[in-house]
Specification:
32% strand; four-stranded antiparallel sheet; 2 domains; Immunoglobulin-like; alpha+beta
Protein backbone atom coordinates (compact mmCIF):
# COMPACT_ATOMS: atom_id res chain seq x y z
CA UNK A 1 0.00 0.00 0.00
CA UNK A 2 2.85 2.36 0.91
CA UNK A 3 4.51 1.64 -2.43
CA UNK A 4 1.31 2.62 -4.31
CA UNK A 5 1.14 5.92 -2.41
CA UNK A 6 4.73 6.73 -3.35
CA UNK A 7 4.16 5.84 -7.02
CA UNK A 8 0.89 7.85 -7.13
CA UNK A 9 2.53 10.87 -5.46
CA UNK A 10 5.51 10.72 -7.83
CA UNK A 11 3.23 10.48 -10.88
CA UNK A 12 1.10 13.39 -9.67
CA UNK A 13 4.17 15.56 -8.97
CA UNK A 14 5.60 14.74 -12.41
CA UNK A 15 2.34 15.72 -14.06
CA UNK A 16 2.11 18.98 -12.09
CA UNK A 17 5.74 19.84 -12.87
CA UNK A 18 5.23 19.08 -16.56
CA UNK A 19 2.10 21.25 -16.73
CA UNK A 20 3.80 24.20 -15.05
CA UNK A 21 6.91 23.94 -17.28
CA UNK A 22 4.67 23.75 -20.37
CA UNK A 23 2.58 26.77 -19.36
CA UNK A 24 5.61 29.00 -18.66
CA UNK A 25 7.71 27.94 -21.65
CA UNK A 26 5.39 29.29 -24.40
CA UNK A 27 6.60 31.51 -27.21
CA UNK A 28 7.12 35.13 -26.31
CA UNK A 29 4.55 37.39 -27.93
CA UNK A 30 5.56 40.28 -30.10
CA UNK A 31 4.37 43.61 -28.79
CA UNK A 32 2.30 45.79 -31.09
CA UNK A 33 0.02 48.80 -30.78
CA UNK A 34 -3.43 47.91 -29.45
CA UNK A 35 -5.14 48.69 -32.77
CA UNK A 36 -2.89 46.24 -34.63
CA UNK A 37 -3.37 43.31 -32.27
CA UNK A 38 -5.49 40.35 -33.29
CA UNK A 39 -8.77 40.17 -31.43
CA UNK A 40 -9.48 37.20 -29.19
CA UNK A 41 -13.15 37.30 -30.24
CA UNK A 42 -14.39 34.14 -31.86
CA UNK A 43 -18.00 33.57 -32.89
CA UNK A 44 -20.02 30.85 -31.19
CA UNK A 45 -19.82 27.52 -33.04
CA UNK A 46 -23.25 27.71 -34.67
CA UNK A 47 -24.34 28.04 -38.27
CA UNK A 48 -22.08 27.34 -41.21
CA UNK A 49 -18.73 26.52 -39.63
CA UNK A 50 -16.93 26.46 -43.01
CA UNK A 51 -18.25 29.86 -44.10
CA UNK A 52 -15.70 32.35 -45.39
CA UNK A 53 -17.02 35.00 -43.00
CA UNK A 54 -18.72 34.88 -39.61
CA UNK A 55 -20.61 38.12 -38.96
CA UNK A 56 -21.92 39.28 -35.59
CA UNK A 57 -23.87 42.53 -35.25
CA UNK A 58 -24.75 44.16 -31.91
CA UNK A 59 -25.44 47.58 -30.44
CA UNK A 60 -22.90 49.04 -28.01
CA UNK A 61 -25.69 50.01 -25.61
CA UNK A 62 -29.38 49.22 -25.36
CA UNK A 63 -31.52 50.25 -28.33
CA UNK A 64 -32.95 53.68 -27.37
CA UNK A 65 -36.64 54.26 -26.70
CA UNK A 66 -36.70 57.56 -28.63
CA UNK A 67 -35.89 57.75 -32.36
CA UNK A 68 -34.00 61.03 -31.89
CA UNK A 69 -31.33 59.27 -29.79
CA UNK A 70 -28.14 57.92 -31.34
CA UNK A 71 -27.13 54.28 -31.20
CA UNK A 72 -23.75 52.79 -32.20
CA UNK A 73 -23.80 49.44 -33.95
CA UNK A 74 -20.71 47.25 -33.80
CA UNK A 75 -20.04 44.45 -36.27
CA UNK A 76 -17.32 41.86 -35.86
CA UNK A 77 -16.41 39.84 -38.93
CA UNK A 78 -14.11 36.84 -38.62
CA UNK A 79 -12.39 36.05 -41.92
CA UNK A 80 -11.81 32.28 -42.27
CA UNK A 81 -10.05 32.13 -45.66
CA UNK A 82 -7.36 34.04 -47.48
CA UNK A 83 -9.04 36.53 -49.78
CA UNK A 84 -8.08 37.07 -53.41
CA UNK A 85 -9.62 40.55 -53.49
CA UNK A 86 -10.50 43.40 -51.19
CA UNK A 87 -12.92 42.81 -48.33
CA UNK A 88 -16.08 44.83 -49.04
CA UNK A 89 -18.95 45.70 -46.74
CA UNK A 90 -22.24 47.52 -47.05
CA UNK A 91 -24.84 48.53 -44.45
CA UNK A 92 -28.54 48.53 -45.43
CA UNK A 93 -30.59 51.08 -43.52
CA UNK A 94 -34.38 51.33 -43.42
CA UNK A 95 -36.32 54.47 -44.18
CA UNK A 96 -36.01 57.05 -41.42
CA UNK A 97 -32.59 55.89 -40.22
CA UNK A 98 -29.61 58.12 -41.00
CA UNK A 99 -25.87 57.86 -40.39
CA UNK A 100 -24.24 60.09 -37.78
CA UNK A 101 -20.76 58.56 -37.92
CA UNK A 102 -19.14 55.78 -39.96
CA UNK A 103 -19.11 54.55 -43.54
CA UNK A 104 -22.15 52.89 -45.13
CA UNK A 105 -19.98 51.00 -47.63
CA UNK A 106 -16.25 50.56 -48.07
CA UNK A 107 -13.52 48.12 -49.12
CA UNK A 108 -10.51 47.07 -47.08
CA UNK A 109 -7.32 45.71 -48.62
CA UNK A 110 -4.98 43.06 -47.20
CA UNK A 111 -7.47 41.36 -44.89
CA UNK A 112 -5.98 38.01 -43.88
CA UNK A 113 -7.42 34.69 -42.75
CA UNK A 114 -7.99 34.65 -38.98
CA UNK A 115 -8.31 38.41 -38.80
CA UNK A 116 -11.30 39.99 -37.06
CA UNK A 117 -12.55 43.15 -38.76
CA UNK A 118 -14.50 45.47 -36.46
CA UNK A 119 -16.87 47.96 -38.05
CA UNK A 120 -18.82 50.70 -36.25
CA UNK A 121 -21.76 52.74 -37.46
CA UNK A 122 -23.58 55.36 -35.39
CA UNK A 123 -27.15 56.03 -36.51
CA UNK A 124 -30.20 58.00 -35.46
CA UNK A 125 -33.80 56.93 -36.06
CA UNK A 126 -33.26 53.32 -34.94
CA UNK A 127 -35.29 52.89 -31.75
CA UNK A 128 -37.87 50.75 -29.97
CA UNK A 129 -40.66 53.05 -31.18
CA UNK A 130 -41.11 51.00 -34.34
CA UNK A 131 -39.73 47.66 -35.56
CA UNK A 132 -36.83 48.32 -37.96
CA UNK A 133 -34.00 46.16 -39.27
CA UNK A 134 -30.44 47.09 -40.18
CA UNK A 135 -28.28 44.61 -42.04
CA UNK A 136 -24.60 44.35 -42.85
CA UNK A 137 -23.41 42.43 -45.89
CA UNK A 138 -19.77 41.46 -46.41
CA UNK A 139 -18.17 39.93 -49.49
CA UNK A 140 -14.94 39.15 -51.32
CA UNK A 141 -13.97 37.37 -54.53
CA UNK A 142 -12.39 33.93 -54.73
CA UNK A 143 -11.62 33.32 -58.38
CA UNK A 144 -14.88 33.71 -60.30
CA UNK A 145 -16.99 33.25 -57.17
CA UNK A 146 -18.28 35.96 -54.86
CA UNK A 147 -18.24 34.79 -51.24
CA UNK A 148 -20.19 36.62 -48.59
CA UNK A 149 -22.29 36.61 -45.46
CA UNK A 150 -24.58 38.98 -43.60
CA UNK A 151 -26.12 39.78 -40.23
CA UNK A 152 -29.25 41.63 -39.12
CA UNK A 153 -30.12 43.58 -35.99
CA UNK A 154 -33.69 44.54 -35.11
CA UNK A 155 -34.88 47.43 -32.99
CA UNK A 156 -37.57 45.43 -31.18
CA UNK A 157 -36.17 41.95 -30.52
CA UNK A 158 -39.17 41.13 -28.33
CA UNK A 159 -41.41 41.28 -31.44
CA UNK A 160 -39.47 38.65 -33.42
CA UNK A 161 -40.49 35.02 -33.90
CA UNK A 162 -37.40 33.89 -31.97
CA UNK A 163 -38.55 35.83 -28.91
CA UNK A 164 -42.03 34.31 -29.14
CA UNK A 165 -40.91 30.72 -29.73
CA UNK A 166 -40.72 29.67 -26.04
CA UNK A 167 -44.28 30.91 -25.46
CA UNK A 168 -45.50 29.06 -28.57
CA UNK A 169 -43.92 25.86 -27.27
CA UNK A 170 -45.53 26.24 -23.85
CA UNK A 171 -48.88 26.87 -25.53
CA UNK A 172 -48.51 23.74 -27.71
CA UNK A 173 -47.55 21.63 -24.69
CA UNK A 174 -50.57 22.92 -22.78
CA UNK A 175 -52.94 22.16 -25.66
CA UNK A 176 -51.50 18.78 -26.64
CA UNK A 177 -50.26 17.60 -23.28
CA UNK A 178 -46.60 17.32 -22.45
CA UNK A 179 -46.27 13.60 -23.34
CA UNK A 180 -48.12 13.94 -26.67
CA UNK A 181 -45.96 16.92 -27.62
CA UNK A 182 -42.73 15.03 -26.86
CA UNK A 183 -43.85 11.94 -28.83
CA UNK A 184 -44.72 14.02 -31.90
CA UNK A 185 -41.29 15.66 -31.92
CA UNK A 186 -39.46 12.31 -32.16
Amino acid sequence: MRKRKIVFTAAFMSLALGASVYSFSGKSEERAPAAAEKSSWRPPPVGKHLATFHVELKSEADIPEDSSDEVTLVARVLVNQDLQSDFSYSWSLPEGVSVVDGEIADSLANVKSGQVVELKLTVVGFSKEKQKMISLGVKAHAGNEVLGNSAVIVSRAEDTLEAGAPELRRSAEAQLGNETFKRRRK
